[in-house]
Design brief:
- The protein starts with 19 loop residues before the first helix and ends with a helix.
- The chain is built from seven helices and eleven strands.
- The strands form three sheets. Strands 1, 2, 3, 4, 10 and 11 form a six-stranded antiparallel β-sheet that branches.
- The model is unreliable at 243-256 (pLDDT under 50).
- By secondary structure, the chain is an alpha+beta fold.
- It has helices spanning 20-33, 50-59, 70-77, 109-118, 162-167, 206-214, 248-255; strands spanning 39-46, 64-67, 100-105, 121-123, 135-137, 140-141, 172-175, 178-181, 195-198, 220-231, 237-239.
- Helix content is 25%, strand content 21%.
């Protein structure tokens, strides 16, 4: 039968699956890097943002950062004394859980720890993030920050935003050219205080994150936490974050 002449969607971009060769290259690259640097840090990342991580790479341009499968990174370091690629570096393996990476550097540990301690970038929360605090929009005229600053220092939201606020569940309407949040059962768990966008501890969905962004409320913080580091000169592993080794035995068993 003749071919259909109907329009077809052609995807111009594709994300190729990482091959075994790519994984082996990462494995070999980590092993080749170990003898070139004096220190190896295991760090975790809260609220990962590639833009901010790129800034970290630029700041630490004299060092090497690796991200990959934790089991692959653990295999590169070694699981025990018998296959440890360097003296005692295998002791970092229990820390390789979750969103973590490896940093190889010749910088003094004190300097690296101070750099990461001061590193913090706030950003808009994404769906799946946990709300660190409440955010409630007061009843009455809706302002640009949703009540985050006093009304005398804020401006009302534009009328063009009202349909989207209503679509996202807020009981709003136009009154004399201004967007007004009505009191009523549509507000949900408000108790007279306003429209509850989120409560502390909520796992945010896409609707909540969109509302937070519309009101310019940043609830995510990009941070890098050092869990532990290894020093080539002594072969010692220094634990930095005490919580990082909770269940370390289970993590070691999983990596095996």
């Amino acid at each position: 039968m003749p071919k259909s002449k109907r329009s077809k969607v052609v995807h111009l971009t594709q994300v190729s699956k990482k091959t075994r060769e790519h994984k082996e290259r990462l494995f070999e690259s980590i092993r080749e890097t170990i003898p070139q640097y004096q220190h190896c840090f295991v760090f975790s990342v809260d609220n990962m943002r590639n833009t901010y991580l790129k800034n970290v790479r630029q700041e630490l341009s004299d060092s090497r950062l690796f991200f990959g499968k934790t089991k692959l990174m653990a295999r590169a370091l070694g699981h025990g004394p018998e296959d440890s690629y360097a003296d005692n570096i295998y002791k970092l393996t229990p820390h390789l859980r979750g969103t973590v990476g490896l940093l190889f550097t010749n910088r003094a540990p004190e300097g690296v720890l101070a750099y990461f301690a001061d590193l913090s970038q706030v950003d808009f929360a994404r769906a799946g993030a946990t709300a660190p605090r409440d955010f409630v929009v007061p009843h009455g005229v809706v302002y640009a920050t949703g009540g985050e600053v006093p009304a005398e220092h804020d401006v009302p939201v534009g009328h063009t935003l009202e349909p989207e606020l209503r679509r996202l569940g807020m009981p709003t309407r136009m009154v004399k050219g201004r967007v007004v949040l009505e009191e009523g059962p549509e507000g949900g768990d408000n108790n007279g205080e306003g429209y509850v966008v989120c409560r502390e501890g909520d796992v945010l969905d896409s609707r909540q994150t969109r509302l937070l962004k519309l009101f310019s409320v940043c609830l995510s913080e990009f941070r890098v936490k050092v869990l532990a580091y290894w020093s080539a000169s002594t072969g010692d592993v220094t634990q930095v974050d005490g919580a990082s080794v909770d269940g370390a035995e289970e993590a070691q068993e999983e990596s095996d």
